[in-house]
Amino acid sequence: MQNNQDKQDIKEIVAYIKNQERTLRSNHPFLAQQNALGLGLLLVSVCGFTAAGCLYFYAVIPAWCCIIIAALSASIAHEIEHDLIHQQYFKSNSAVYHFMMFMVWIIRPNTVNPWYRKGMHLNHHKTSGTPQDIEERLVGNGIKSHTLRLLVVCDGLLGLIIRSKQFSREIKGYNFFNVFNASLPFVTVYYLIIYIFLLFHGVNFIADSSAVKLNTPVWLVSLMEWVNFAMVVWVAPNFLRSACLNFITSSMHYYGARFNLLEQTQVLNHWAFMPFQWFCFNFGHTHSIHHFVPNQPFYIRQIISKQVNLLLKNKGVKFNDLVSIFAANHYKKIERSS
């Protein structure tokens, strides 16, 4: 619910964000080349992701370095996908648009396909804070159990399976197989690699600890070489990226009612969140801006976020409401003077 003061504040915030963007664009004419910028940033992301894998393959960089570089690259691709969902690039060129949609998916294999996610995300803007917001609920928003929340943040597929009956009861039109099929084939391969990796190395660890000699077949040793490589260059970077993003986004969105724009999100810019912010492109610091003005490229939000966040705070948007994270994202209303 929103009173007249809230409506006025929201109107002022939206106008201020748009004015900041206009000023930025007038000062930097190259920003008018939005299609080229979007495609260029996507190519930077894909090249960074691919280069990290190649450097690891040729033993130029260690596994941990490859994982970090690839995760940072994939975080850019996530922002590009978000912009594509809001038709920010190549709106009138379907061939390039769908090419970009495919590329952001292939380097982020643990997500549903972007065409399906488009509907989920637009629904998120309409139903944020309510049980119908499946996008946020899939990544842990509103979960009371901290153990279950941690599992969902790290393993979205297992979380989906565990909570499917609950979703069927609470979300209109929910169908498990619709969501599951939208993740094929990459999510299936992604989780197969994870569980094969964990099973193989777990069994070997137990055997080594127990002084048990295992006769591993040659074909399995050969397979594990590829699994280990895929784990480092494709799976682990996205596990890191998605876990950080899921933690940040599920923490900053409030849950439990149809909130107005001042109450849908909080801004997370506490220093303790910085390690997570690195791998989700500063999401907690900038995503609240997106709720006020959805049709805006992510790099614009980044540039104007410092000035806009000062206004958001002045208008009552919460900052670093850490208590809500431990209370199933409950929003505690604070009455403001007019």
From TrEMBL:
Residues 62-308 form the Fatty acid desaturase domain. One of its GO terms (biological process) is lipid metabolic process. This is Fatty acid desaturase domain-containing protein. Pfam families: FA_desaturase. Keywords: Membrane, Transmembrane, Transmembrane helix. The chain crosses the membrane at residues 57-77, 176-198, 218-240. The lineage of its organism: Bacteria, Pseudomonadati, Pseudomonadota, Gammaproteobacteria, Alteromonadales.
